[in-house]
Write a structure and sequence with these properties.
mainly beta; Porin; eight-stranded antiparallel β-barrel; about 10% helix; about 55% strand; Outer membrane protein beta-barrel domain-containing protein; Beta-barrel_OMP_2
């Protein structure tokens, strides 16, 4: 899925849920739309590639709505720029030094969390599912023909990872009613590298079959509620 389609999907989802997020405030209960931004530390947990996680940005929209007593629902749409490095080498000879191949990926996530207020509106714990739609894992243009690890597979050959992923998230948020800081951990339930099964990697290198990897991400940021 290309960047334009990802952005279009995100915009459609934003308008669909933001129309339901008009502010209502009574007796400490509310349903409020917020704008949030932060940083993410993205990784793919795998034994098949040497991956180094990196930091990049995230931004989006979220709604926090009262449900029952200390329980709330948190749902939203967030855009992510994911970055990581994978070890590789410029030449096919194994004596060629190992260096980092930089990869970048754009994604959109929709989340629906259950949130429990530990200290009124000041501190909450939340958890729930995340549906992620992402583009290709794009290798840096001048390193597309480098070789991945000690294999005969080029960096560009492993770009088409799974475009749809399901994650579980656990996090904390704290602050005031209008401003909250948050931190979150996500882990992917499905094999993020499954999309590479149709790329014929084993024809180039027998060791590049049945690849398996799961997304792992730490994210943190600030939310401003309208």
């Amino acid at each position: 899925m290309d960047l334009k389609r990802i952005l279009l999907l995100g915009i459609v989802l934003i308008f669909s849920f933001s129309a339901q997020a008009q502010r209502r405030l009574w007796d400490g209960e509310y349903n409020r739309l917020g704008l949030q931004a932060g940083a993410n530390y993205f990784n793919i947990v795998t034994n098949d590639l040497e991956v180094q996680p990196k930091v990049s940005w995230t931004a989006g929209f979220t709604t926090r709505a009262s449900f029952y007593e200390n329980w709330q629902f948190v749902y939203g749409i967030n855009f992510y720029d994911f970055k990581l490095d994978i070890d590789g080498r410029e030449k096919v000879e194994l004596t060629s030094p190992i260096e980092a191949i930089e990869y970048n990926m754009i994604g959109v996530q929709g989340n629906f969390f259950a949130s429990y207020k530990l200290i009124d509106h000041y501190l909450s714990v939340e958890a729930g599912p995340v549906l992620q739609v992402n583009g290709k894992l794009d290798a840096r243009q001048d390193k597309e023909l480098w070789f991945v690890g000690n294999t005969n597979v080029n960096a560009i050959d492993i770009e088409k990872i799974s475009p749809f992923n399901v994650n579980l998230a656990l996090g904390l948020s704290g602050g005031m009613e209008t401003v909250k800081f948050w931190a979150q951990y996500q882990y992917g339930l499905n094999n993020m590298l499954k999309g590479l099964e149709d790329e014929g990697l084993e024809e180039k290198d027998a060791g590049m079959s049945n690849l398996e990897g799961h997304m792992s991400m730490i994210a943190a940021g600030i939310t401003m509620f309208l």
